[in-house]
Write a structure and sequence with these properties.
The protein has about 200 residues and is of the alpha/beta class. Helices cover about 30% and strands about 20% of the residues. It has a single domain (about 5-175), classed as Zn peptidases (Aminopeptidase). It binds zinc ion.
């Protein structure tokens, strides 16, 4: 078997990666329950971002599934065991103080700027491209690999609640989110009302 130069494979796809990531970053996928509909239960922005990733997967030949408009997945490979890669396409509101448009995905000095660039659209798209490279190289897989797309990670986790009511639990998995190479765990979250 010939040696695979992974970095070269990544660099060959760099322009496409940036373009696809910018496409995702330019969607304002903030929870918007006031404008929710049956087809977009978390609002139009989140729905658009979910569809964006599902369409990308479809175009690249992955098996894709929309799970109740609250989550979805892109799958490749074969085997009884399932590797889950869990990303999310919702973002928290952009807030104030930006020096660039938070939904442009502009590249400056080798960095990409947007709400969600590091949490979690960048890592989700990076994981997607890792799968795409393995797929395009035609490497044999003895497991299925599934990118599971969450849509409500920043709020109430209705995405994974719904997803795992209807879909298979992965045998093993990981979560590319926010920091590289690893965040061991988020230790919890508290909301306070101080009176
Ligand atoms: Zn996140």
């Amino acid at each position: 078997m010939t040696e695979i130069h992974w970095m070269d494979e990544v660099l060959k796809r760099k322009d496409d990666f940036i373009k696809d990531l910018q496409g995702l970053l330019q969607i304002k996928s903030v929870l918007d329950e006031e404008n929710a509909t049956e087809d977009a239960p978390l609002g139009p922005g989140i729905q658009e971002a979910l569809q964006f990733l599902l369409h990308l997967g479809e175009k690249d030949g992955f098996q894709t599934k929309n799970v109740g408009n609250l989550a979805g997945h892109l799958e490749m490979g074969e085997g009884s065991e399932l590797v889950g890669v869990l990303g999310h396409i919702d973002v928290v509101p952009e807030g104030d103080g930006w020096s660039v448009d938070p939904y442009s995905g502009v590249v400056k000095d080798g960095k990409i700027y947007a709400r969600g660039a590091s949490d979690d659209k960048g890592p989700t798209m990076a994981a997607y491209y890792a799968m795409k490279i393995v797929k395009e190289l035609g490497l044999p897989l003895n497991k299925r690999v599934r990118l599971i797309i969450g849509t409500d990670e920043e709020s109430d986790w209705r995405c994974v609640d719904h997803y795992f009511k209807h879909e298979e639990m992965p045998t093993l998995g990981f979560v590319p989110d926010a920091d590289f190479p690893i965040i061991f765990a988020e230790k919890g979250i508290s909301d306070f009302d101080i009176v």
